[in-house]
Amino acid sequence: MPGTDDRLDDWRELVAKGDHVFYLLNISRTDDAGYVAAVRTDLKATIEALNKSSKGRKRINIIASHVDQSKWNTVDVAQVNNVLQEDPVIRRMYESMEGVKGYVYSANLTDPASFKRLLQSIVDDLQA
To answer: Checking DSSP bridges between strand 22-26 and strand 101-106, what pairing results, if any?
Structure first.
């Protein structure tokens, strides 16, 4: 994930060369219009880099972090991904991935059990 504008070109280069793209999304900030706009800019740059790359497999893995600090903190862990994809902000991000497969995962990255489930889900999807 680029993080700042001065790192965007480096990010594009990494995306074009790498085998896997992971973008961390702080879902506790989805009500912050500035943050959401920055995420959309990052995702647009990522998708453009993927579409220009020679990679046959064009995929971005969005990891929704900070579930425990978000408005979804009371949702059953097994249902968070489904609920997230129904959220208008997340749906708009997800649907903007023209030419690229998008996968959304959720996790509390400081919780070892949640992190382990995240890794297993990613591994399972990559093998599918």
So the answer is: unpaired
Range of the domain at 101: 5-127
User: In CATH, what number is assigned to the domain containing residue 98?
Assistant: 3.40.50
For the stretch 58-103, pLDDT in tens is 788 899 999 999 999 999 988 888 898 889 988 888 788 887 888 8
What global pTM score does this model have?
A: 0.83
| Pairing of the two strands 22-26 and 59-65 | parallel
Instruction: Supply φ then ψ for residue 111, to 5 degrees.
Output: -100, 115
